[in-house]
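FORM 12-B: Structure-to-Sequence Request
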C-alpha cells in the first residue's frame, strides 16, 4: 500500500467531526451555519474545558471535545484508489513459464493506493449532552494509546 499526496491536499485543511450517530453519507457536506455552528465553551480559557464545544443536531444537544493531532504526526483524509502496477516477482516454482528471465517474471498486480484529499491538525469527537470522557471514548483512547504504543515499538532500548 502506498500514499499519493494530491496536488491540492496540502492546501485543503479541515476539521473532521466524529458524531455519536449513524449518517448514511460519507463525504463533504455544504452545511450552512443555521444547521451546524459549534460554539466553544469557556471563551479563551486555557483549561481543558476550553477545548470543548457545544452544538445541536436535529434538535439534540451535542458536546464535543477537540483532540489535537500529536506533534510529529499529520492527520489525513484519504480515499483508496485501485491501480494496476507492474512488479517483478521471483519465479522460483515455474522458471519455464515462457516469460521468465533469470528467475524473475514481470506480472501485473492490482495495488491499493491511498490518495490524500485533505489534511487536519485536530478532530472533534462529539457526545450526547456531555463531552466524551478520555478514559471511555474509543476514539480519544485510540489516538492516545496507539501513539504511545507506536513510540514504544519504535524506541531503541539499551537492554
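FORM 12-B RESPONSE
SEQUENCE OUT:
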Amino acid at each position: 500500500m502506498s500514499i499519493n499526496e494530491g496536488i491540492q491536499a496540502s492546501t485543503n485543511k479541515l476539521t473532521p467531526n466524529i458524531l455519536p450517530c449513524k449518517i448514511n453519507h460519507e463525504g463533504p457536506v455544504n452545511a450552512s451555519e443555521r444547521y451546524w455552528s459549534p460554539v466553544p465553551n469557556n471563551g479563551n480559557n486555557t483549561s481543558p474545558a476550553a477545548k470543548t464545544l457545544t452544538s445541536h443536531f436535529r434538535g439534540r444537544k451535542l458536546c464535543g471535545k477537540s483532540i489535537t493531532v500529536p506533534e510529529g504526526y499529520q492527520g489525513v483524509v484519504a480515499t483508496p484508489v485501485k491501480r494496476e502496477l507492474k512488479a517483478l516477482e521471483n519465479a522460483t516454482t515455474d522458471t519455464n513459464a515462457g516469460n521468465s528471465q533469470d528467475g524473475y517474471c514481470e506480472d501485473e498486480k492490482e495495488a491499493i493506493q491511498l490518495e490524500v484529499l485533505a489534511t487536519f491538525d485536530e478532530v472533534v469527537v462529539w457526545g450526547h449532552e456531555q463531552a466524551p470522557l478520555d478514559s471511555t471514548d474509543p476514539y480519544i483512547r485510540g489516538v492516545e494509546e496507539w501513539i504511545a504504543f507506536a513510540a514504544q515499538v519504535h524506541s531503541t532500548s539499551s537492554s
